[in-house]
Structures are given as C-alpha cells and as structure tokens.
Design a protein that fits this description.
The protein has 2 domains: about 210 residues, Spore Coat Polysaccharide Biosynthesis Protein SpsA, Chain A (Alpha-Beta Complex), CATH 3.90.550.10; about 90 residues, no CATH class. Helices cover about 35% and strands about 20% of the residues. It contains 12 helices and 15 strands. Strands 1, 2, 3, 4, 5, 6, 7, 8 and 9 form a 9-stranded mixed β-sheet that branches. Strand 11 and strand 12 form a beta hairpin. It is globular. The relative contact order is 0.11.
Length: about 425
C-alpha cells in the first residue's frame, strides 16, 4: 500500500465492533469488504461487545480474522479499545459492523500517511437507506445516521475530527493518547456519540500533527427504517448535544464547538433559505426546513441540560499496574442511578509485558472524569465484586499493587 521511510511496508489492522446477531448479514458483508482490500491483506479484528452467543458464532463461521471480546465497560468505546489492544498494524482503521468498504478504501486511507505529520485519516460515508430516503431529512443532518453530511470538505482537507464509521489512526499515537473515552459513545442501540470527536481533539492536543479527511476513501453505511423516523432524528440530535457538552467539559468549549459554530453560521442558514424558495417549498422544502430547526433546537436543548447540571465533588482513584492479577476499576455516577461512567481494565497476564497495553491502561486512568462516584474493584479471576467503601479498602490493602485514594466518603457508602 505504502512504505515507511525505512522502506518497510506499512501494516494495517481493521477493527470492526459488533454487539448483536441482528446485524449478522451486515457484519459478514463488512468483514468480506475489508478482506477484499489490498494488497497487502489487512489484519481483520472483530470485537464482540458482551454477547457470548455472537462471539461463538463469529469464531466458528467467519474465517481469516482475529476475534476478541470487550471485557470492560459495555459500549462502542470500550470495544474499540479492546480491538486496539490486540492490533499489530502500524495503522488501525475502524469500520462499523453495518458498513461496507468500497474498492480501494484502505489504500486511499493509507496513502495519506506518507506525510509523517498525519496522525489519522478518515473517509467519506454514504448512506444506504433501507427504503426511500425521507424527503424531509436534511442532507446537512446525515451525521444523525452516521454518514458524511453536506458542509463537509469535498476534497482532501484537514479536519478536527472524523465520522466514526470510517476512520483510522497511527496505532502508536492512538495508544499514547489513552484510546477512546468510555464515558462517551454508544452502548448498544442508544443514540449517544462524540467519542471520536473527543479522541481526535485529545490526540492533536497531546502530540501535535494533523487529521486528514480523504473523501475518496469511501464506505457505505446501512440506515435501517427505524433511523429514518422523526422520533430517532430528534432523539439523536438531543443526545448529540448532551455528548458535545461532555466533550466541552473535557477539552474546553473553543475546541469542542469550533466546527459546530461554523456549521450553524453558514451551512444551516443556507439550507433553510434554500428550503423556503418557492420552488423548494412546493417540493417538500417547508417540511425539511422544519426538520433543520427541530434538529438544531433538540441538539441545543441536549447541550444546555447537560451543561447546566451541577458539578459533582471529586473522587480520585489511583491504580498501579499489577504483575499477577487481572481486574478492572469500575466508576459509577451515584447521582444518576449508578450509571457506569468509566471502566478501566488491566490487561491480562498474557499481555502485561506489551508496552502498548501498559501505556494504554495508564493513559486511560489519567483521563477518567472526576465525578461523585463509588468505586468497585472487580477481581476478574473470581468475579467477586466489592461495592462498599470499607470492603473496597479492605480488598485494596490485600494487594500491594493497588493504591486507592479516597478524599471523601461516597454519599452511598
């Protein structure tokens, strides 16, 4: 595909995350589309997100792949991190389990890495609607269904972040950044997002470099009928707003909302004006204009409700890397019905000597949100859980490799 300065061929790993057998045919098509890329043929990694039946089926029925599981917090971010942990390629690309890579997708992504300043490359995503595209659905809101939207660059250009359906990064930079933040991103079929936005901003902020959008590296993304409804449109916009508020808290409003401000000042008004011309109004333009306004309002409401939530006290958790045991730190938000907001897995003994795994774990610890939380240390060997304050301290004292610092007692303990 391309070569590094040393003349060595650049290797590529492609991570596909899956959580349900309902998308089996799509998953098989996604894997096949990647295996047809090259040469050389990339390493294909399928990560199963907490679904044992799906794991067993993939292991038996899909050949010439590496299959692994997400043993941390359920969700797309945790699954992607699990894929990165076992990837061996110089570049790690991500493809959704309901997307298919077009011919020359991977070569066009990888070619851009000839520039040593490039940290990541993303491609375009074309929707494949289960039926007819709704006439009211604005092309500026195709991000709602995980696709490229009107207003994005039409030629190769630097961008702030990628669409998660079709993106890639240098593995070394991705590991050094700490990977995807497990507080962000989808869990199952919910409508959250922005994990790739926060990651991209963090990667550039930590190590410099550029992120490049290459629209000729194309994939198609399945859009089921359930996502072509007003209900899903509004819910997704609202959740996007809430997710953007979390990103703003992590990286600051200037970086988190820079692209959105340009989008709201230029792209959105142009669409509304176009929809209200006499010709377009007669052809469903008025309904599309309403959709634009509703989408913006829903996203703004989501952002406001998340931003105005009162700040929480701090609980700090410090975990050293163990030599003989396997466990993870789970962090819960007590104010929101014990919502799991972070899960940091310590890699298995078989992988503990890998510098990338150690660095990924330590960086994930450093990037945890500081909330009013309770901590549960889970010994994954015995699957015993210790949820209460005193039990946690007793458990931690039994393992010199774990140090837990609690500046105040959790409200629930």
């Amino acid at each position: 595909m391309t070569t590094a300065d040393t003349g060595r061929a650049v290797s590529v790993s492609v991570v596909i995350c899956a959580y349900t057998e309902a998308r089996w045919d799509d998953l098989v098509a996604a894997v096949r589309s990647v295996q047809l890329q090259g040469p050389p043929t990339p390493e294909v990694i399928v990560v199963i997100d907490h679904n044992e039946a799906l794991f067993d089926r993939v292991r038996i029925e899909i050949l010439r792949i590496k299959v692994t599981v997400n043993t941390g917090r359920p969700g797309l971010s945790g699954a992607r991190n699990a894929g990165v942990a076992v990837a061996t390629g110089d570049i790690v690309a991500f493809l959704d389990d309901d997307a298919e890579a077009e011919d020359q997708w991977l070569p066009r992504l990888v070619e851009t890495y000839r520039d040593v300043d490039v940290l990541g490359v993303g491609g375009s995503v074309t929707p494949s609607w289960a039926g007819t595209r709704p006439r009211w659905f604005p092309p500026e809101f195709d991000w709602v269904v995980g696709c490229s939207y009107q207003g994005m660059p039409e030629t190769r250009a630097p961008v702030r972040n990628f669409i998660g359906t079709n993106m890639s990064f240098r593995r070394a930079a991705l590991v050094a950044s700490g990977g995807f933040d497990s507080e962000l991103g989808r869990v199952g079929a919910d409508a959250s997002g922005c994990e790739e936005t926060e990651l991209c901003i963090r990667m550039v902020g930590q190590g410099g470099g550029r992120l490049i959008y290459e629209p000729s590296a194309r994939v198609t993304h399945q859009v089921p009928a359930t996502r072509a409804t007003w209900q899903y449109f509004i819910r997704r916009c609202y959740r996007e707003g809430r997710s953007k508020a979390v990103v703003a808290r992590l990286v600051g409003q200037d970086q988190a909302l820079a692209t959105e401000r340009s989008y709201l000042r230029g792209v959105i008004p142009r669409r509304v004006v176009q929809c209200l011309t006499p010709t377009r109004r007669a052809d469903g333009g008025l309904t599309m204009a309403v959709a634009v306004v509703v989408g913006v309002v829903a996203a703004g409401l989501g952002y406001a409700t998340a931003t105005l939530a009162p700040p929480a006290p701090t609980l700090t958790v410090d975990v050293d890397f163990p030599d003989q045991y396997v466990y993870e730190v789970l962090i819960f938000d007590q104010a929101r019905d014990r919502k799991l907001v972070a899960a940091v897995e310590i890699v298995s003994p078989a992988n503990k000597d890998r510098a990338e795994s150690r660095q990924l774990f330590l960086a994930k610890c450093a990037n945890l949100l500081r909330n009013d939380v309770c901590v549960s240390v889970v010994d994954l060997v015995t699957v015993r859980r210790f949820n209460l304050y005193t039990e946690l301290l007793t458990y931690a004292r039994g393992f010199p490799s774990i140090a837990v610092s609690l500046p105040h007692r959790c409200h629930c303990c």
